[in-house]
């Protein structure tokens, strides 16, 4: 299972915090997310450790740059200023390769996110995840429709987790039985559930890739287009 391998490798080498949809899933709210989002301590040693972890797992940059650039703080800062680089995406090998999005410049201070983080135990592998409050703050600041949908009425993820099973008062539309089953899973089984769903979604994506690309719906295509657009 790649997700467990990834977190085992992160824990051996990297100071990180899991954010985004997978973190929300570990808190008990199923999200059909195809990517893994983390933020990391922006120090030379930590970024070098992240590069070594990527090599260990055979991960390569989505953008047309060298993997070694991920450990070059000056280069990253220049791209952040001049090309609005916010995240560095790494893709695992294979047809259904996982994308690890490394948020380099989070809108909330990393040390604070790390200090409030929650550790989930997936079998014997710790997964360091952002707190509910920090996930809400990140989503409010980033403000994409999917992020705002996560925290609209009842406003907080705590509310979603504690709400009764009454379809009339929630905006997260899955069956009551599925919601109950997912909440009851162990962290390891939540990771397996989300990884299997993400693998399926990535495998069926090529069938609709052309239409998605034309509509600007592809995360990777959008990132590359923005990057190339900034090169002129």
**What's the number of domains?**
1
Helix content: 40-55%
How much is the average pLDDT? 79
Shape: globular
Instruction: Give start-end ranges of low-pLDDT stretches.
Output: 163-172, 208-232
Q: Supply Rg.
A: 18 Å
N to C succession of SSEs = HEHEHEHEEHEEHHHHHHH
Separation, N- and C-terminal Cα atoms: 41 Å
Q: What's the main sheet like? A: 5 strands, mixed
**Count of strand segments:** 7
Q: Count up the helices.
A: 12
Give the percentage of residues in beta strands: 5-15%
Structure classification: alpha+beta
The main sheet orders its strands as 1-2-5-4-3
Describe this structure in words.
A hairpin with a 7-residue loop joins strand 4 (87-91) and strand 5 (99-103). This protein has 232 residues and is α+β, with helices and mostly antiparallel strands. It is globular and about 50 Å long. The longest helix has 18 residues, at 187-204. The chain has one domain. The strands form two sheets. The chain has a five-stranded mixed sheet. A two-stranded antiparallel ribbon has the order 6-7. The model is unreliable at 163-172 and 208-232 (pLDDT under 50). Helices cover 51% and strands 14% of the residues.
